[in-house]
Write a structure and sequence with these properties.
Elements lengths: L6 E5 L2 E2 L4 E6 L6 E7 L19 E5 L2 E5 L3 E7 L5 E11 L2 H17 L11
Antiparallel strand pairs: 1-2, 1-5, 3-4, 4-8, 5-6, 7-8
């Protein structure tokens, strides 16, 4: 079976480049969350305006298939002289089931390997 290049898409057929991932777990509830950061978005290139609703679906694809995610939150960071320049998008989603967490982790490992990314632990102080 041929290897499928891991991809992340907000819009069908438009792959995005992930710049960072933060994995979090609430110590009190055990709830796990993934925060993905994007500093460039092909989905909005060439557009003069965009809305938060553009980021209400995320599709992760790899050799195991598709993971369809509805983010629980997204934060659009802008800047520049007029405040309208895109700087970064942060998308967060929760993962409740252990089997789903393991699947997301396998995707992230494949994506990292395919794109020259490495894991870096940041222990709380």
């Amino acid at each position: 079976m041929p290897t499928v290049q891991p991809t992340i898409e907000f819009l069908e057929g438009v792959g995005e480049a992930l710049n960072g991932v933060s994995l979090r777990q609430d110590r009190a509830t055990g709830m796990r969350a993934v925060q993905m950061s994007f500093t460039q978005l092909r989905a909005i290139e060439g557009l003069n305006s965009f809305t938060r609703t553009s980021f209400n679906r995320l599709k992760l694809t790899d050799e195991e298939g598709e993971i369809s995610i509805q983010p629980s939150g997204s934060r659009l960071i802008t800047g520049g002289d007029d405040g309208g320049e895109f700087k970064r998008l942060e998308v967060t989603f929760e993962v409740t089931l252990e089997e789903h967490w393991e699947r997301v982790m396998r995707f992230l490992e494949r994506y990292a390997q395919a794109n020259g990314m490495a894991y870096q632990s940041t222990e709380p102080s």
